[in-house]
Design a protein that fits this description.
2 copies of one chain form a homodimer. Chain A is about 75% helix and about 0% strand. By secondary structure, chain A is mainly alpha-helical.
Chain lengths: ~280, ~280
């Protein structure tokens, strides 16, 4: 099976679970449950939850253990997009080809929608009865840290600063590690944990190194694609502030090769190797 | 000891723990860690965390077990105030006599500050090593539900609707139950859980009935105080839309008496009885 097919199949599983999870509503609360579904069920590629599933499978775990964690990661990713799009942040009226959440539901509802998705992520982990209690707690800790002040939110703070200030290469790397890298690593970490692989296991460390590499690759390719489209903000520091297109791609290639070599250490690691390759060559 | 002294002493414990918890920062992230401290360390009365401590004590638990949960509840309360004050919500420039978070730190930082406080609350619960793993998971589930779509956030959605629409008494009660009641009940629930009292225990049910009564009292008194100050929004539906001041106070008195009679069933329940009395007669 090729990677695209595997990702598509995984996305179907994830979407079914998310849809089920977001199906409940109550009288008077239709607008918020509708806007939550709107923000989440938007046909994303589900790369993060795929990582959760893929690492759980690689290390012999069951999909049923990984799916709630995978959904929690996707809820956090979705919330971050909703809040990122708000007028006080990136002020984006469009997201994935349709009106962003606040464009469709108003700013107050979008704010609350993001809050709600973030909040839900943690009960989804807490209620995952397929794994033991200590593992669930580790996942909640990991996710909270990855999403919080010293993870994704910290990355957004530094990124806001970078919009108006000159920053050096080290800071750019830090922004990417926090803003996108932390949640990508957490997605993989939750997959490991769902399979019973703990933080002190060398397999866990391999999953983190793999995820660090593909996370950074993801961002470099984003910068290259934005540059091609001419859609980048002129004042924004990107990898192309520090290197030409060719060097940036070669940098991403080196990172990808590291990720592939990690994946290939494991029987059944072909999908993760292909995923790294796919992210390097993606066109949007 | 009287209730004010006991609340003050508890607030010192809570504030010390919150301050310790919010003391870490990282280079470049000073603005967000500062704004988190600003939003949380603001000299609130700490009623919610007091409930967590008081119920834990009532049922024989240790303060050390309750404090992390109490702090988590207060972080969630603080986040909700930061987001509530944003321009797209209540657009409040002042909070507790000083500039609100977005007035002091800008809108984007305030948005991220709220997100961060909410996120932190869950790792604080997950990492509470003073209680067993299953109890921590119950607390996370309880807090996530109380704060989420069918709790506090749902209350805010209904409240936004009520700002511009006529609503009936039943809906007003539902708004109050969700918007302020759910987190007050969760605060008490976490205190019970910290003391080893589970959801199927009659003591837990008593704690919930007590909290329901004081939560509603709290809101009725708020409406009365706003009315005295003339600070209420003319179009806003409050308890005074449906009854005169005297009837509203009598309603609150009945609720308070219910709460007091529940507290008095327990040895050591005097503080909780006094708290109910205090909330009925508070002047701001």
């Amino acid at each position: 099976m090729d990677i695209l097919k595997d990702m598509e199949r995984a996305a179907l599983l994830i979407d079914a679970a998310l849809s089920e999870y977001l199906s409940e509503s109550q009288e008077g609360l239709e607008i918020i449950t509708e806007s939550e579904r709107y923000a989440v069920m938007s046909g994303g590629k589900r790369i993060r939850p795929y990582l959760t599933l893929a690492f759980c499978r690689l290390f012999g775990g069951n999909d049923s253990a990984a799916i709630p964690f995978a959904c929690a990661v996707e809820l956090i990713h979705s919330y971050s997009l909703v809040h990122d799009d708000l007028p006080c942040m990136d002020n984006d009226l469009m997201r994935r080809g349709k009106p962003s959440c606040h464009a469709a539901f108003g700013e107050a509802n979008a704010l609350l929608t993001g809050d709600s998705l973030l909040t839900r992520a943690f009960s989804l982990c807490a209620d995952n009865s397929e794994v033991d209690a200590h593992t669930r707690l580790s996942c909640i800790s990991c996710l909270s840290r990855a999403a919080g002040t010293f993870g994704m939110i910290g990355g957004q703070v530094l990124d806001l600063y970078g919009d108006t200030h000159e920053i050096d290469f080290e800071t750019l790397l830090k922004i990417q590690r926090l803003k996108t890298g932390a949640l990508i690593k957490a997605a993989s970490a939750l997959g490991c944990l769902a399979a019973g692989v703990k933080g002190n296991d060398s397999r866990f460390a391999d999953a983190m190194a793999y995820s660090e590499s593909i996370g950074l690759t993801f961002q470099i390719i984003d910068d290259l694609l934005d540059d091609e489209e001419g859609s980048e903000n002129e004042n924004k520091t990107t990898f192309l502030t520090f290197m030409d297109r060719r060097s940036a791609f070669e940098y991403a290639e080196r990172l990808t090769n590291e990720a592939i070599s990690i994946a290939n250490r494991y029987e059944g690691g072909e999908m993760l190797a292909s995923l790294a390759e796919f992210l390097l060559h993606r066109k949007k």
